[in-house]
UniProtKB/TrEMBL annotation, chain C:
It comes from Pseudarthrobacter equi. Keywords: Cell membrane, Membrane, Transmembrane, Transmembrane helix, Transport. It is found in: Cell membrane. This is Peptide/nickel transport system permease protein. The keyword Transmembrane helix applies. Belongs to the binding-protein-dependent transport system permease family.
Length: 520, 335, 309
C-alpha cells in the first residue's frame, strides 16, 4: 500500500506533534521550577506568603511596606526601635540617647555588635547609614517619608558615641531614627543595593527572583538566637490563594487576608494601623461650602458599613490616627449617622445658592484594601441619598496617585478621594504634616491659623505635644472638615497551628521572624 | 476552516465543497421552488431550536429587562447581604439570592446582560466587518497587498492587548465604548487571516476566473462571488469569537481594567464574586452560568446556520432525522 | 525552503520594529511614573530630578533614538522598580511561560485529535453530540474562575495538588488544566469538522475499498489532510497563550512573562515592558513562521515551488 503523497521524508502529521511533545517534556525536565517538593517545610523553617514580591530589599527603602516587611528587624536593625504596643522607644543598636541641646542629640551605641559580613558595628557605620539615607543623592524613600528636605549633621564622636544635629528643633528625632536600618560602610553610596547586609538575626541566603526569598539565621548575631533557623518568603496576589496555602499547609504565615477568604480559626485579627477616610477638595464647588462637607460626614453610616462589610471588626473612626499613636484624641466623638441632618444641610446650602447638583467625583483606587469596591459603592449610594450628585471613579494605582499627591490633577471638578493612611511612626506629626497643612503633600487645603497650630504642635514635646495634637484633630473636625473619616481597620493574618505568633499594629510593615516560635 | 455537522457518507455525485463551475447565489428561503424555509428547518433540529430560543431570551432580557427591573439592581440593603438563593422567603426578587451589598442577584444579572451584550456584539461585529472585508480584498488581489496585510496582522497579534487596554482605558476614559474598541481591534487579525486564506484559495477557482473574463470589476467579483463563499466560515468564526470576547471582557475585569463599578456586566460579576466563592458561591456561579449558556447556544446555532446558509449543504437539514445518522460501515463497502 | 525562511525572517523585522515603537509610544502616553517611585511628599525638585535621570523629559523621538541605540548595543535599559537589567528580567521570566504554553498546547492538540476523530467517526451520533457539548462548554468558562474553583476543590478540599507556586511536578497540574480547557474545546470542534469533511472525500472510500484498517484510514489518510486548519488554529491559540496566560500566572504565582508584563504596565516600568514585549513578539513571529512551514510540509499544494537542477 503506497502512501498518497510524495514527501521527501516520511513525516506523517502525527510525527510532528510527537516530536514536539518529546522536545517540550525534555525541556520541562530542566525546568525553571525548583524540583524540591512542595508543602511540608522543615520544622526549623517558617514559610511566609506575602501579597507581592518586594521590588528590592534596599535598607533605605524599608519604609515601603513591601520591602520593610522582609528586611526590618530581620536582616537589618535600626538604632532605636518603637514598641508597637506601648508606643515607647526602646534601645536596639543604640543603648541610650538624650537631647544635649535644642537641636542636638547624642546617642550611645551598643558594643560587641557585628555585621553579617564580619565587620564591626560602630559610630562610623551609624553615621554612614544616616548620611547615605538622608543626605545623599540616592533618593531613598525613607528620606522623603521621614525626614523631608532637611539634612542632618551627623558626627561619630568616638567608636560608640554619635551626635545628630537637626536644622530645626525636632523633639521626635529618635522616632525618626527608628526608620533607618543600619548598613555597613562598605555599602554603595552611588547605587541602591538589592540585598543588603545588616546586623539583624537573619542573613539573606538567596533570592530566586520571581519565586522566593530565603533567609537563615547566623552565628555572630549579638542578641538571642531566634527560634526558627530559616525563613522563606513567597508571594501570591490573590488573597484567597494565600489563605488556601495556609489551609493546605503550604505556608505558615499569610499576610493581608480578607474576611471572605474563609480562613476560619486559622486567621488572627489585629489592628493594623490603617485608617480609611474621604478627603474633600474644598477648592471646588459644591465642596467649598462647609455645610456640604459636614453633610458628607453625616450621610455616611459608619456603623452599618463596619458591621455589614467588615463583620464588626473595624472601628468607627473620628480622626486619621487610631489609638496608640501619640496625639490620638480619645475624647473625640466623631460624626453620628444622621441622614436627615445631611439632607437639611444640603438643602440649606442649596437655598443659599450653592450648586449642589454639580458633580462630585468619588475617586477610589481599585484593590487598595479588601472590599474597597463594595465600600465605594455604598458611599456613593449614601451620599446620593443626601441629595448630592456623586459619580464613582475607580482607578488603578498610577492614575489614583495623580489625585492623591501634589501636584493634583487639574480640571477634575470637585473630588472626594478615598484615602487609606497608615501611621507607621506612632506620632501624629507624620499624619498631620502631610494631610492637614495647607501645603501638605496629601492635603487639598488648610487655613493659616491651622498651619500655625500645626507648627506649634510639631515643636512641642511630652504631654504638651499630646495635648496640642489632640486639639488639632478636634479643630479639624470642627472648623476645617477636610476629611470624612470612616473606620480604623483591622487586618487578618493567616497562621498555621504549628506557629505561635501574636501580630501587632506594625506586623504589616515589619514582620519580625524572631518573634515567632514553634507552637508546643 | 471547514466545520460542519453533516454526516460522513456523501451521496453520489455531490462533494462537500462548492462544486466547481457553479456560482454560489445569495441564499433565500423560498417556498416556491420546493425548499423549506429557514424557520421550518430550524424547528426540525431540536438543539438548534433550543439554542435559538435561548439566544432570543437573552436578547429580550438585554433589551427590555433593565426597564422592567427599575432600580432593583442598584438598591442596596446592607443588612441583606449575601443571602442564599432558591428560597422565596424574601420575595421573588431575591430568588437568586442577594449580593454583598444586598442587591437582588436576579436584577443585577438582567441589567448586566445588556452591558455584556452591548460590549460583545459590537466588538464581534466591528472586527468581523473590518477583518473580513480587508482579508478578502487582500486575498483577492494577492501580491504586495496581501503581504502588507499579513504583516499588519502579525503586528496587531503580537501587540500586548493589555497595554493597549490600560492606555486606552485610563488615558482616555474608562467606558464600554473603549472596551469595545480594544476588543475589536485585537481580534481583527483572526478574521483577516482566515478571510485572506479562503479568498486566496478561491481566486484560482473557475467561477472567479469566469467572472473576470466577463469583465466584472474586482469589487463586484468580491461582493458577488467571493464573499458569499467565505461568509459561512467567517460566521462560524464569529460565533467562536463571540464566546472569546465575553471571556476576554471578564478577564479584563479580573485584572481591574474592564467595566468599572457602578456599571455591571456578567464578567465583572464573576470577577468580583470570586472572593466569595467559599462563602457566597452564587455571586460568581450564576453570571458564569449565564456566560456559558449564552456562548453554547451561540455556538450551536452558528453550527446549524453554517449548514443552513450554504446552498450546497442545506438539503441535509431537510432530511428526516434518521437518515442523517446513517453511515455505511466500512465492511459493507467491500466487495 | 531556506530562501522562504530567510524572506519571512526579513519581512518580519519591520513589524517587530513597529511593535516596539508602538509600545514605546503608548507606554509614555500613560504619563510620568514619578509618583509611583518617589515618596508621597516628594518635592517638585525631586520629581524633576527623577524625570531627568530617566530621560523622560526628552522629546519622544529623542527617547526612541536613545532606546534603539541602546538595543543595538544589547542594552535594554533598567527596571525603574528593581534596578535590575530589563532584558535579564524578561529572559528569566519567559521560559516559565513558554514551558507552560507549549506543554498545554501539546496536550490540548493530542487530546483534541483523539476526541475530535472519535466524534467524527459517527457524526450526529451520541458521541458526537456529547463531545460537542463538552467542548463548547470547555471553551466558554472564564479561566480565572476555573483556576480558583480548581484550587478550592483539588488543592484545599481533596489535597491532591499544591495550591500554587512552581515547586514540584504536581504544581503544573492545575495551571495546565486551567489553560488547557479553552484550546481543547476550540480544537475539538475544528478537528471534528475537518475530519468529517476529510472522511467524506473520495480517497477515503478508495482506501477503505482497498482494505485499509480503520485506524490507518483515520490517521494516515484523513488526519493528514484535516491537520492543516487545526494547525493554523492551534498556532493562533498558542500565540494567545503566550500573550494571555497572565491570569493563570497571576493566580498561581507562576513567574512568567505575562505577570511581568501586567506588573510593569501597572507600575509604568517602561524598560521592562519594552523588553518583555520585544521578547514575546520575537517568539510570536518565530511561531508564525514555524506554523507556515508546517502548513507547507503537510500540504504539498501550498509549498513554495523549488526548481531542482
Amino acid at each position: 500500500m503506497t502512501s498518497s503523497s510524495k514527501l521527501p521524508f516520511q513525516a506523517t502529521a502525527l510525527r510532528w506533534p510527537a516530536l514536539a511533545a518529546v522536545a517540550v517534556f525534555g525541556l520541562s525536565a530542566c525546568s525553571v521550577a525548583n524540583s524540591d517538593s512542595a508543602g511540608g517545610g522543615a520544622a526549623d523553617t517558617v514559610r511566609v506568603v506575602l501579597g507581592q514580591e518586594p521590588p528590592t530589599l534596599e535598607a533605605c527603602e524599608s519604609n515601603l511596606t513591601s520591602t520593610g516587611v522582609v528586611v526590618r528587624s530581620n536582616v537589618t536593625e535600626p538604632l532605636i526601635e518603637r514598641n508597637p504596643q506601648s508606643g515607647e522607644l526602646e534601645p536596639k543598636l543604640a543603648t541610650e540617647w538624650k537631647a544635649t541641646s535644642n537641636t542636638e542629640w547624642t546617642l550611645k551605641l551598643r558594643e560587641g555588635v557585628n555585621f553579617q559580613d564580619g565587620t564591626p558595628f560602630n559610630a562610623e557605620a551609624a553615621a554612614f547609614t544616616i548620611d547615605r539615607a538622608v543626605n545623599s543623592k540616592l533618593g531613598c524613600n525613607v528620606e522623603g517619608y521621614v525626614f523631608g528636605d532637611a539634612d542632618l549633621d551627623v558626627k561619630a564622636v568616638d567608636a560608640t558615641t554619635l551626635t545628630v544635629t537637626t536644622p530645626e528643633p525636632d523633639p521626635i528625632l529618635p522616632l525618626r531614627l527608628s526608620f533607618l536600618e543600619v548598613v555597613p560602610t562598605s555599602t554603595s553610596t552611588t547605587e541602591k543595593v538589592r540585598e543588603p547586609i545588616g546586623t539583624g538575626p537573619y542573613k539573606i541566603d538567596s533570592w530566586d527572583a520571581g519565586q522566593k526569598i530565603s533567609l537563615s539565621s547566623w552565628d555572630g548575631y549579638w542578641g538571642d538566637k531566634p527560634a526558627y533557623a530559616k525563613a522563606e518568603y513567597q508571594w501570591r496576589s490573590e488573597s484567597s490563594v494565600r489563605a488556601a496555602m495556609i489551609t493546605s499547609g503550604e505556608a505558615d504565615v499569610a499576610m493581608g487576608l480578607s474576611p471572605d477568604d474563609n480562613i476560619g480559626d486559622l486567621g488572627v485579627d489585629y489592628p493594623n494601623n490603617e485608617t480609611v477616610a474621604l478627603r474633600m477638595d474644598a477648592n471646588e464647588a459644591p465642596l467649598n461650602d462647609i455645610r456640604i462637607r459636614q453633610a458628607v460626614n453625616f450621610a455616611i453610616d459608619k456603623e452599618g458599613i463596619v458591621n455589614s462589610l467588615y463583620q464588626g471588626k473595624h472601628q468607627v473612626a473620628a480622626q486619621l490616627v487610631p489609638e496608640g499613636i501619640v496625639g490620638h484624641n480619645s475624647g473625640l466623638k466623631g460624626w453620628p449617622f444622621d441622614l436627615e441632618k445631611a439632607k437639611s444641610l444640603v438643602a440649606e446650602a442649596k437655598a443659599d445658592g450653592v450648586d449642589t447638583a454639580k458633580q462630585i467625583s468619588l475617586v477610589v483606587r481599585s484593590a487598595q484594601f479588601p472590599k474597597i469596591t463594595e465600600l465605594a459603592q455604598v458611599l456613593q449610594e449614601q451620599l446620593s441619598q443626601a441629595g448630592l450628585n456623586v459619580k464613582l471613579k475607580m482607578l488603578e494605582t498610577s492614575q489614583h496617585l495623580t489625585y492623591q499627591v501634589r501636584p493634583f490633577a487639574e480640571d477634575e471638578g470637585a473630588v472626594a478621594l478615598m484615602t487609606q493612611h497608615g501611621n507607621q511612626a506612632g506620632d501624629a506629626a507624620f499624619t498631620v504634616d502631610q494631610y492637614m497643612l495647607s501645603t501638605g503633600a496629601q492635603s487639598y487645603f488648610g487655613t493659616p491659623e491651622f498651619d500655625a497650630m500645626i507648627r506649634k504642635a510639631d515643636a512641642a514635646s511630652g504631654d504638651a505635644r499630646q495635648k496640642a495634637f489632640e486639639e488639632i484633630f478636634a479643630y479639624q473636625n470642627d472648623k476645617v472638615v477636610q476629611f470624612a473619616h470612616i473606620s480604623h481597620q483591622t487586618g487578618i493574618l493567616g497562621k498555621a497551628k504549628s506557629v505561635s505568633y501574636t501580630p501587632n499594629s506594625s506586623s504589616g510593615d515589619e514582620l519580625r521572624i524572631s518573634e515567632m516560635t514553634p507552637a508546643s | 476552516m471547514t466545520s460542519s455537522l453533516t454526516d460522513g457518507a456523501a451521496p453520489e455525485g455531490q462533494e462537500e465543497r462548492q462544486p466547481a463551475g457553479q456560482p454560489p447565489t445569495r441564499n433565500a428561503p423560498d417556498f416556491r421552488d420546493g425548499q423549506p424555509g429557514l424557520f421550518r428547518l430550524l424547528l426540525k433540529d431540536r438543539f438548534a431550536a433550543v439554542a435559538a430560543f435561548v439566544l432570543l431570551l437573552v436578547g429580550l432580557t438585554a433589551l427590555v429587562g433593565p426597564a422592567l427591573m427599575g432600580d432593583l439592581a442598584t438598591k442596596q440593603n446592607l443588612l441583606f447581604a449575601n443571602k442564599a438563593p432558591f428560597t422565596m422567603a424574601h420575595g421573588w426578587e431575591y430568588f437568586l439570592g442577594s449580593d454583598s451589598l444586598g442587591r437582588s442577584m436576579l436584577a443585577r444579572l438582567v441589567v448586566a446582560s445588556r452591558t455584556t451584550l452591548s460590549v460583545a456584539l459590537p466588538a464581534v461585529a466591528v472586527a468581523l466587518l473590518i477583518g473580513s472585508l480587508w482579508g478578502v480584498w487582500a486575498g483577492y488581489h494577492r501580491g504586495w497587498r496581501e503581504n502588507v496585510s499579513m504583516r499588519v496582522a502579525d503586528v496587531i497579534m503580537s501587540f500586548p492587548s493589555l497595554l493597549l487596554a490600560v492606555v486606552v482605558l485610563y488615558v482616555f476614559s474608562p467606558s464600554a465604548a473603549n472596551i469595545v474598541l480594544i476588543l475589536a481591534l485585537t481580534r481583527i487579525p483572526i478574521y483577516l487571516r482566515t478571510a485572506r486564506a479562503e479568498s486566496a484559495e478561491l481566486q484560482s477557482r473557475t467561477f472567479v476566473d469566469a467572472a473576470r473574463t466577463f469583465g466584472a470589476k474586482p469589487n463586484a467579483i468580491i461582493f458577488r462571488h467571493v464573499i458569499p463563499v467565505v461568509l459561512p466560515t467567517l460566521l462560524t468564526l464569529a460565533t467562536l469569537e463571540f464566546c472569546y470576547v465575553m471571556l476576554a471582557e471578564s478577564s479584563l475585569s479580573f485584572l481591574g481594567i474592564g467595566i468599572q463599578p457602578p456599571d455591571v456586566s456578567w464578567g465583572l460579576m464573576v470577577s468580583q464574586g470570586r472572593q466569595y466563592l467559599q462563602t457566597a458561591w452564587w455571586l460568581s456561579i450564576f453570571p458564569g452560568v449565564a456566560i456559558v449558556v449564552t456562548t453554547i447556544a451561540a455556538n450551536v446555532l452558528a453550527a446549524w446556520l453554517r449548514i443552513a446558509t450554504d446552498p450546497a449543504q442545506r438539503w441535509r437539514l431537510a432530511l428526516p432525522r434518521k437518515r442523517l445518522i446513517a453511515r455505511i460501515p466500512a465492511k459493507e463497502a467491500q466487495p | 525552503m531556506l530562501t522562504y525562511l530567510r524572506k519571512r525572517i526579513i519581512s518580519s523585522a519591520l513589524p517587530l520594529v513597529v511593535v516596539v515603537v508602538g509600545v514605546f509610544a503608548l507606554a509614555r502616553m500613560t504619563g510620568n511614573p514619578a509618583s509611583l517611585y518617589l515618596p508621597l511628599n516628594a518635592t517638585q525638585q525631586m520629581r524633576d530630578d527623577f524625570t531627568a535621570r530617566n530621560g523622560l523629559d526628552q522629546p519622544l523621538l529623542v527617547q526612541m533614538a536613545d532606546y534603539f541605540g541602546g538595543v543595538l548595543r544589547l542594552d535594554f535599559g533598567q527596571s525603574l522598580r528593581t534596578g535590575q537589567d530589563a532584558a535579564a528580567m524578561a529572559l528569566r521570566a519567559f521560559p516559565a511561560t513558554l514551558q507552560l504554553a507549549a506543554t498545554t498546547m501539546v496536550l490540548a492538540v493530542v487530546l483534541a485529535v483523539i476526541v475530535g476523530c472519535w466524534a467524527a467517526l459517527k457524526p450526529n451520533g451520541v458521541a458526537d453530540r456529547i463531545s460537542s457539548f463538552i467542548s463548547m462548554a470547555a471553551a466558554s468558562i472564564p479561566d480565572f474562575w476555573l483556576a480558583i474553583v480548581g484550587i478550592w476543590i483539588f488543592a484545599i478540599t481533596l489535597g491532591w495538588v499544591p495550591t500554587s507556586g512552581v515547586s514540584g511536578a504536581s504544581a503544573w497540574v492545575l495551571p495546565i488544566a486551567t489553560l488547557l480547557l479553552r484550546p481543547f474545546g476550540v480544537l475539538v470542534q475544528i478537528v471534528r469538522g475537518s475530519m468529517v469533511s476529510a472522511l467524506s472525500e473520495p480517497y477515503i472510500k478508495l482506501a477503505r475499498s482497498r482494505g485499509a484498517g480503520e485506524l490507518r484510514v483515520v490517521t494516515h489518510h484523513a488526519l493528514r489532510n484535516a491537520a492543516a486548519p487545526a494547525l493554523t488554529v492551534a498556532g493562533d491559540l498558542t500565540v494567545g497563550l503566550v500573550n494571555g496566560a497572565v491570569v493563570v500566572e497571576t493566580i498561581f504565582g507562576w513567574p512568567g512573562i505575562g505577570k511581568l508584563m501586567i506588573d510593569s504596565i501597572l507600575q509604568r516600568d517602561f524598560a521592562v515592558l519594552q523588553a518583555a514585549v520585544l521578547l514575546t513578539a520575537v517568539a510570536i513571529f518565530a511561531l508564525n513562521i514555524l506554523i507556515d512551514m508546517g502548513y507547507a510540509l503537510l500540504d504539498a499544494r501550498v509549498r513554495p515551488v523549488t526548481v531542482k537542477a
